[in-house]
Design a protein that fits this description.
about 325 residues, alpha/beta, four-stranded mixed β-sheet, two-stranded antiparallel ribbon, 15 helices, 10 strands, about 15% strand
Length: about 325
Protein backbone atom coordinates (compact mmCIF):
# COMPACT_ATOMS: atom_id res chain seq x y z
CA UNK A 1 0.00 0.00 0.00
CA UNK A 2 1.30 3.47 -0.86
CA UNK A 3 2.89 5.30 2.09
CA UNK A 4 0.52 8.24 1.63
CA UNK A 5 -2.54 5.99 1.84
CA UNK A 6 -1.12 4.20 4.89
CA UNK A 7 -0.50 7.51 6.61
CA UNK A 8 -4.04 8.64 5.80
CA UNK A 9 -5.56 5.47 7.21
CA UNK A 10 -3.46 5.72 10.39
CA UNK A 11 -4.56 9.34 10.84
CA UNK A 12 -8.23 8.45 10.39
CA UNK A 13 -7.97 5.51 12.79
CA UNK A 14 -6.33 7.76 15.38
CA UNK A 15 -9.15 10.28 15.01
CA UNK A 16 -11.81 7.57 15.39
CA UNK A 17 -10.12 6.13 18.48
CA UNK A 18 -9.98 9.61 19.98
CA UNK A 19 -13.76 9.85 19.57
CA UNK A 20 -14.36 6.36 20.98
CA UNK A 21 -15.70 5.21 17.63
CA UNK A 22 -15.06 2.70 14.90
CA UNK A 23 -13.79 4.30 11.70
CA UNK A 24 -16.39 4.73 8.98
CA UNK A 25 -15.60 6.25 5.59
CA UNK A 26 -17.70 7.21 2.58
CA UNK A 27 -14.94 7.18 -0.02
CA UNK A 28 -15.10 3.86 -1.93
CA UNK A 29 -11.40 3.69 -2.73
CA UNK A 30 -10.48 4.32 0.89
CA UNK A 31 -13.01 1.74 2.08
CA UNK A 32 -11.51 -0.81 -0.34
CA UNK A 33 -8.06 -0.07 1.09
CA UNK A 34 -9.39 -0.65 4.60
CA UNK A 35 -11.04 -3.91 3.55
CA UNK A 36 -7.67 -5.19 2.28
CA UNK A 37 -6.20 -4.59 5.73
CA UNK A 38 -8.92 -6.53 7.59
CA UNK A 39 -7.20 -9.56 9.08
CA UNK A 40 -3.84 -7.81 8.75
CA UNK A 41 -3.91 -5.45 11.70
CA UNK A 42 -7.52 -4.32 11.29
CA UNK A 43 -10.90 -5.75 12.30
CA UNK A 44 -14.33 -4.93 10.90
CA UNK A 45 -16.92 -5.54 13.66
CA UNK A 46 -19.75 -4.40 11.38
CA UNK A 47 -19.89 -3.84 7.61
CA UNK A 48 -17.90 -0.71 6.67
CA UNK A 49 -16.70 -0.14 10.26
CA UNK A 50 -13.03 -0.60 11.14
CA UNK A 51 -10.64 -0.56 14.10
CA UNK A 52 -7.09 -1.61 14.87
CA UNK A 53 -7.05 -5.24 15.99
CA UNK A 54 -4.89 -4.71 19.10
CA UNK A 55 -6.94 -1.69 20.17
CA UNK A 56 -10.24 -3.50 19.62
CA UNK A 57 -9.20 -6.59 21.56
CA UNK A 58 -8.28 -4.41 24.54
CA UNK A 59 -11.75 -2.88 24.80
CA UNK A 60 -14.36 -4.18 27.28
CA UNK A 61 -17.54 -5.43 25.61
CA UNK A 62 -19.61 -2.36 26.46
CA UNK A 63 -16.96 -0.06 24.99
CA UNK A 64 -16.94 -2.15 21.80
CA UNK A 65 -20.68 -1.69 21.44
CA UNK A 66 -20.31 2.06 21.99
CA UNK A 67 -17.59 2.23 19.33
CA UNK A 68 -19.92 0.46 16.89
CA UNK A 69 -22.80 2.81 17.70
CA UNK A 70 -20.66 5.93 17.25
CA UNK A 71 -19.24 4.50 14.04
CA UNK A 72 -22.75 3.94 12.68
CA UNK A 73 -23.69 7.46 13.72
CA UNK A 74 -20.78 8.83 11.71
CA UNK A 75 -21.75 6.74 8.71
CA UNK A 76 -25.47 7.56 8.96
CA UNK A 77 -25.80 11.11 10.38
CA UNK A 78 -29.54 11.15 9.56
CA UNK A 79 -30.29 8.28 11.97
CA UNK A 80 -31.85 8.94 15.39
CA UNK A 81 -30.91 6.12 17.74
CA UNK A 82 -33.56 4.85 20.14
CA UNK A 83 -34.54 1.95 22.43
CA UNK A 84 -31.55 -0.27 23.32
CA UNK A 85 -29.05 1.76 21.29
CA UNK A 86 -30.01 4.99 23.05
CA UNK A 87 -29.96 3.16 26.39
CA UNK A 88 -26.39 2.05 25.72
CA UNK A 89 -25.27 5.61 24.97
CA UNK A 90 -26.93 6.92 28.14
CA UNK A 91 -25.12 4.29 30.21
CA UNK A 92 -28.24 2.33 31.11
CA UNK A 93 -27.66 -1.39 31.81
CA UNK A 94 -28.84 -3.02 28.60
CA UNK A 95 -28.32 -6.62 27.49
CA UNK A 96 -25.76 -7.10 24.72
CA UNK A 97 -28.25 -9.42 23.03
CA UNK A 98 -30.38 -6.33 22.33
CA UNK A 99 -27.53 -4.67 20.43
CA UNK A 100 -27.07 -7.07 17.50
CA UNK A 101 -28.61 -4.36 15.35
CA UNK A 102 -28.76 -0.61 15.85
CA UNK A 103 -32.18 0.66 16.89
CA UNK A 104 -33.27 3.79 15.04
CA UNK A 105 -36.44 5.80 14.59
CA UNK A 106 -38.34 4.74 11.49
CA UNK A 107 -37.39 7.58 9.21
CA UNK A 108 -34.62 7.88 6.66
CA UNK A 109 -32.94 4.91 5.02
CA UNK A 110 -32.09 2.43 7.76
CA UNK A 111 -31.17 -0.79 5.93
CA UNK A 112 -32.63 -3.92 7.56
CA UNK A 113 -29.28 -5.69 7.79
CA UNK A 114 -27.81 -2.86 9.85
CA UNK A 115 -30.66 -1.43 11.89
CA UNK A 116 -34.07 -2.14 13.29
CA UNK A 117 -36.59 0.64 12.73
CA UNK A 118 -39.07 1.71 15.39
CA UNK A 119 -42.09 3.69 14.25
CA UNK A 120 -42.86 5.81 17.31
CA UNK A 121 -43.42 9.54 17.71
CA UNK A 122 -40.20 10.74 19.28
CA UNK A 123 -37.97 13.75 18.80
CA UNK A 124 -34.22 13.42 18.64
CA UNK A 125 -31.70 15.21 20.85
CA UNK A 126 -27.93 15.27 20.57
CA UNK A 127 -26.17 13.50 23.43
CA UNK A 128 -22.42 12.85 23.49
CA UNK A 129 -22.27 13.86 19.83
CA UNK A 130 -24.91 11.32 18.72
CA UNK A 131 -28.55 11.97 17.80
CA UNK A 132 -30.78 9.90 20.12
CA UNK A 133 -34.20 9.98 21.73
CA UNK A 134 -34.34 11.84 25.05
CA UNK A 135 -33.34 10.07 28.25
CA UNK A 136 -36.93 9.92 29.51
CA UNK A 137 -38.29 8.69 26.16
CA UNK A 138 -35.57 6.03 26.04
CA UNK A 139 -36.44 4.75 29.51
CA UNK A 140 -40.15 4.51 28.70
CA UNK A 141 -39.56 2.87 25.28
CA UNK A 142 -37.37 0.23 26.93
CA UNK A 143 -39.88 -0.42 29.71
CA UNK A 144 -42.65 -0.91 27.14
CA UNK A 145 -40.72 -3.50 25.13
CA UNK A 146 -38.18 -5.42 27.22
CA UNK A 147 -40.38 -7.67 29.34
CA UNK A 148 -40.29 -8.00 33.12
CA UNK A 149 -36.70 -9.16 33.80
CA UNK A 150 -34.83 -6.70 31.60
CA UNK A 151 -37.49 -4.07 32.21
CA UNK A 152 -36.83 -4.26 35.96
CA UNK A 153 -33.16 -3.55 35.23
CA UNK A 154 -34.15 -0.34 33.44
CA UNK A 155 -36.72 0.61 36.10
CA UNK A 156 -34.16 0.22 38.90
CA UNK A 157 -31.64 2.33 37.01
CA UNK A 158 -34.27 4.93 36.12
CA UNK A 159 -35.17 5.50 39.78
CA UNK A 160 -31.53 6.01 40.63
CA UNK A 161 -30.68 8.21 37.63
CA UNK A 162 -33.83 10.37 37.64
CA UNK A 163 -34.03 10.64 41.41
CA UNK A 164 -37.79 10.01 41.38
CA UNK A 165 -40.13 7.78 43.37
CA UNK A 166 -41.94 4.79 41.93
CA UNK A 167 -45.02 6.98 41.69
CA UNK A 168 -43.07 9.59 39.75
CA UNK A 169 -41.70 6.99 37.35
CA UNK A 170 -45.18 5.51 36.88
CA UNK A 171 -46.51 8.96 35.96
CA UNK A 172 -43.71 9.33 33.39
CA UNK A 173 -44.56 5.94 31.86
CA UNK A 174 -48.26 6.77 31.69
CA UNK A 175 -47.57 10.14 30.06
CA UNK A 176 -44.97 9.05 27.49
CA UNK A 177 -46.38 5.57 26.88
CA UNK A 178 -50.06 6.47 26.58
CA UNK A 179 -51.84 4.26 24.03
CA UNK A 180 -48.83 2.00 23.47
CA UNK A 181 -48.73 -1.78 23.91
CA UNK A 182 -46.75 -3.09 26.87
CA UNK A 183 -48.01 -0.42 29.24
CA UNK A 184 -49.21 -2.86 31.91
CA UNK A 185 -45.90 -4.73 31.84
CA UNK A 186 -43.98 -1.46 32.12
CA UNK A 187 -46.01 -0.42 35.16
CA UNK A 188 -45.43 -3.83 36.75
CA UNK A 189 -41.67 -3.27 36.45
CA UNK A 190 -42.03 0.15 38.05
CA UNK A 191 -44.07 -1.29 40.93
CA UNK A 192 -41.15 -3.56 41.90
CA UNK A 193 -38.33 -1.13 41.10
CA UNK A 194 -35.63 -0.34 43.68
CA UNK A 195 -32.99 2.35 43.17
CA UNK A 196 -30.54 0.53 45.47
CA UNK A 197 -29.86 -2.20 42.92
CA UNK A 198 -26.34 -1.62 41.58
CA UNK A 199 -26.15 -3.87 38.52
CA UNK A 200 -28.28 -5.44 35.85
CA UNK A 201 -27.49 -8.89 37.21
CA UNK A 202 -28.74 -7.98 40.67
CA UNK A 203 -31.98 -6.62 39.20
CA UNK A 204 -32.55 -9.70 37.04
CA UNK A 205 -31.86 -11.97 40.01
CA UNK A 206 -34.54 -10.11 41.93
CA UNK A 207 -36.93 -10.54 39.00
CA UNK A 208 -36.52 -14.32 39.31
CA UNK A 209 -37.29 -14.10 43.04
CA UNK A 210 -40.39 -12.02 42.40
CA UNK A 211 -41.65 -14.38 39.73
CA UNK A 212 -41.23 -17.42 41.99
CA UNK A 213 -42.64 -15.73 45.08
CA UNK A 214 -39.50 -15.72 47.23
CA UNK A 215 -38.95 -13.39 50.15
CA UNK A 216 -37.10 -10.39 48.78
CA UNK A 217 -33.78 -9.37 50.34
CA UNK A 218 -32.57 -6.01 51.51
CA UNK A 219 -30.18 -4.52 48.97
CA UNK A 220 -26.63 -3.20 49.36
CA UNK A 221 -26.64 -3.59 53.15
CA UNK A 222 -23.54 -2.63 55.12
CA UNK A 223 -22.49 -5.28 57.63
CA UNK A 224 -19.67 -5.11 60.16
CA UNK A 225 -18.39 -1.90 61.66
CA UNK A 226 -19.74 0.86 59.45
CA UNK A 227 -17.69 3.48 61.32
CA UNK A 228 -14.32 1.84 60.73
CA UNK A 229 -12.84 1.80 57.23
CA UNK A 230 -11.79 -1.69 56.20
CA UNK A 231 -14.09 -3.39 58.71
CA UNK A 232 -17.40 -3.07 56.92
CA UNK A 233 -18.71 -4.73 53.77
CA UNK A 234 -21.75 -4.35 51.57
CA UNK A 235 -23.83 -7.35 50.58
CA UNK A 236 -25.62 -7.41 47.23
CA UNK A 237 -28.54 -9.09 49.01
CA UNK A 238 -29.23 -9.74 52.69
CA UNK A 239 -32.05 -11.85 54.14
CA UNK A 240 -33.09 -11.91 57.79
CA UNK A 241 -34.96 -15.20 58.18
CA UNK A 242 -37.67 -15.87 60.76
CA UNK A 243 -35.40 -18.13 62.84
CA UNK A 244 -32.79 -15.38 63.18
CA UNK A 245 -30.50 -16.71 60.44
CA UNK A 246 -28.88 -14.13 58.16
CA UNK A 247 -28.08 -15.04 54.56
CA UNK A 248 -25.95 -12.84 52.31
CA UNK A 249 -26.37 -13.14 48.55
CA UNK A 250 -23.40 -12.22 46.36
CA UNK A 251 -23.46 -11.96 42.56
CA UNK A 252 -20.17 -13.33 41.28
CA UNK A 253 -19.86 -11.40 38.02
CA UNK A 254 -16.97 -11.94 35.58
CA UNK A 255 -16.79 -8.17 35.06
CA UNK A 256 -15.40 -7.51 38.53
CA UNK A 257 -12.25 -9.37 37.50
CA UNK A 258 -11.69 -7.68 34.12
CA UNK A 259 -13.38 -4.25 34.09
CA UNK A 260 -10.66 -1.62 34.71
CA UNK A 261 -13.16 0.60 36.54
CA UNK A 262 -13.71 -2.21 39.06
CA UNK A 263 -10.24 -3.76 39.25
CA UNK A 264 -8.59 -0.36 39.85
CA UNK A 265 -5.28 -1.47 38.34
CA UNK A 266 -5.15 -4.87 40.04
CA UNK A 267 -4.77 -8.09 38.09
CA UNK A 268 -7.44 -10.81 38.21
CA UNK A 269 -5.52 -12.90 40.77
CA UNK A 270 -5.26 -9.95 43.16
CA UNK A 271 -8.95 -9.13 42.73
CA UNK A 272 -9.94 -12.74 43.38
CA UNK A 273 -7.70 -12.91 46.45
CA UNK A 274 -9.27 -9.72 47.79
CA UNK A 275 -12.73 -11.12 47.14
CA UNK A 276 -11.97 -14.32 49.05
CA UNK A 277 -10.58 -12.33 51.99
CA UNK A 278 -13.68 -10.15 51.95
CA UNK A 279 -15.91 -13.25 51.99
CA UNK A 280 -13.93 -14.72 54.90
CA UNK A 281 -14.47 -11.55 56.94
CA UNK A 282 -18.12 -11.44 55.93
CA UNK A 283 -18.72 -14.82 57.57
CA UNK A 284 -18.04 -13.14 60.94
CA UNK A 285 -21.25 -11.16 60.55
CA UNK A 286 -23.65 -13.37 58.57
CA UNK A 287 -24.54 -17.03 58.97
CA UNK A 288 -24.47 -18.10 55.31
CA UNK A 289 -23.23 -16.71 52.01
CA UNK A 290 -25.01 -17.70 48.82
CA UNK A 291 -22.90 -17.02 45.74
CA UNK A 292 -24.62 -17.00 42.38
CA UNK A 293 -23.68 -16.07 38.84
CA UNK A 294 -25.30 -14.53 35.79
CA UNK A 295 -25.54 -18.07 34.38
CA UNK A 296 -27.70 -18.99 37.39
CA UNK A 297 -30.01 -16.07 36.61
CA UNK A 298 -30.37 -16.96 32.93
CA UNK A 299 -31.04 -20.60 33.82
CA UNK A 300 -33.40 -19.54 36.58
CA UNK A 301 -34.11 -23.07 37.80
CA UNK A 302 -30.53 -23.06 39.12
CA UNK A 303 -31.10 -19.85 41.06
CA UNK A 304 -34.42 -21.16 42.40
CA UNK A 305 -32.65 -24.32 43.58
CA UNK A 306 -29.97 -22.26 45.36
CA UNK A 307 -32.57 -20.07 47.06
CA UNK A 308 -34.38 -23.18 48.30
CA UNK A 309 -31.12 -24.79 49.43
CA UNK A 310 -30.22 -21.74 51.51
CA UNK A 311 -33.66 -21.68 53.11
CA UNK A 312 -35.08 -18.53 51.52
CA UNK A 313 -38.84 -18.90 52.04
CA UNK A 314 -41.59 -18.31 49.53
CA UNK A 315 -44.01 -15.65 50.68
CA UNK A 316 -46.36 -15.72 47.68
CA UNK A 317 -47.23 -17.77 44.64
CA UNK A 318 -45.16 -15.49 42.38
CA UNK A 319 -46.11 -13.77 39.14
Amino acid sequence: MAPRRTAEIDRLLDEAQGKGACLSVHDRALRAALERRVGHGLVSPRPSLYARKAYWEGLPRRQRELHILRGQAGRHPNWTFCFASAALLYGLPISFGRLKKCHVLGTGTAHSSLARRHYVRRRGVVFDGVRVTSFEDTIVDCLLTLGFDEGLVIADAALARLGVTREGLAELVLRLGKGRSGLDDALACVAWADARSESGGESMGRAVMIRHGFMLPELQVVVGNANCEGESWRCDYLWHLADGTTVAGELDGHEKYVNPEMTKGRDAVAVMSNERMRESQLTLYVDRIMRFSYADIVNEERLVAKLEKFGIPRVSQGG
